[in-house]
Write a structure and sequence with these properties.
By secondary structure, the protein is mostly helical. It contains 14 helices and no strands. The C terminus is likely disordered.
Length: 284
């Protein structure tokens, strides 16, 4: 009986690991296979690795100045800049908005919070035409600034709602102590409350970064050449003979790496943020 109690959880965890890490491992292996090994059946697990996919992705080596070069470097830089700054602005503004809605009650407070949440419900296709016309008038089409503004707007409601939940978990007595001793509310917020929700800020940044990094609909319409981001560039990558799957897999690995790096940087705060505030208390 005790053995069965151990085997069943181990089996469930094993199945979960296969389904969660299997696609990533398959992606990495496929990115270093040649065309013959890539379409071999049954799939080959032992093969001679080739790096033509990565050479084509970055336009270096044997693929330099050839028709097979995809050249994702500029798009990678665009994605890093747009996602990084869009996440930064959304988290900063969302933190301030979350604190304000957590600590102050004003007429229409509930309606305002619903409006904030409802911005996540709007399908991108419903507002694409408006953004396209607006950006054309403001000369923001195909610019990093335009995509940063869109990314900030997309994540602002999410960041505000999540951070409100974290601030709700901090007793108001924390600020009251500082106010009684003559300190300003901003001082209490910056020096007392904010350090207590640092895990929440990291978790919010993680969620926002994923949304910003994977954003496709707005980028595909508002950025056509210079400001094109990595997901859009990958989707339109066609080789001289059609779809070059090795290049697509290599580009997919490049797409995953920055997300892994970002979460490695915030990992020590992420678990605390996931188990405090929003998931433990819930926004209210």
């Amino acid at each position: 009986m005790r053995r069965d109690a151990v085997l069943l959880p181990a089996l469930i965890i094993g199945i979960y690991l296969v389904f969660s890490t299997g696609p990533v491992i398959w992606l990495m292996l496929s990115s270093i296979k040649d065309r013959q090994d890539l379409f071999a059946w049954p799939p080959t697990m032992f093969f001679r690795p080739v790096w033509t996919g990565y050479e084509a992705v970055f336009g270096v080596g044997s693929a330099q100045n050839t028709a097979t070069a995809v050249g994702l470097y500029d798009s990678l830089v665009n994605s890093v800049v747009v996602s990084g700054l869009g996440t930064l602005f959304a988290v900063v503004l969302g933190t301030l908005g979350g604190y304000a809605t957590s600590r102050f009650r004003f007429p229409g407070h509930g309606d305002f919070m619903f409006f904030v949440l409802s911005t996540r419900m709007i399908p991108p296709v419903a507002v694409l035409v408006f953004y396209h016309m607006l950006y054309s008038r403001l000369h923001l089409t195909d610019t990093r600034l335009g995509l940063i503004l869109v990314t900030t707007f997309i994540n602002l409601g999410l960041a505000t709602w999540i951070m409100k939940g974290f601030f709700d978990g901090v007793p108001t007595e924390v600020e009251n102590i500082a106010l009684v001793n003559g300190y300003s509310r901003f001082f209490a917020f910056r020096r007392l409350v904010l350090p207590m929700v640092s895990g929440g800020v990291a978790a919010t940044a993680g969620f926002c970064f994923i949304v910003a990094w994977n954003e496709f609909a707005f980028s595909s319409i508002l950025a056509t050449t210079r400001a094109k981001t990595l997901p859009v560039k990958i989707s339109s990558a066609m080789g001289a003979t059609g779809i070059e799957w090795t290049q697509i897999f290599a580009a997919g690995v490049v797409l995953v790496v920055p997300v892994v790096i970002f979460f490695c940087l915030i990992r020590k705060y992420l678990l605390m943020g996931m188990t405090f505030g929003v998931l433990a208390k819930g926004p209210g």
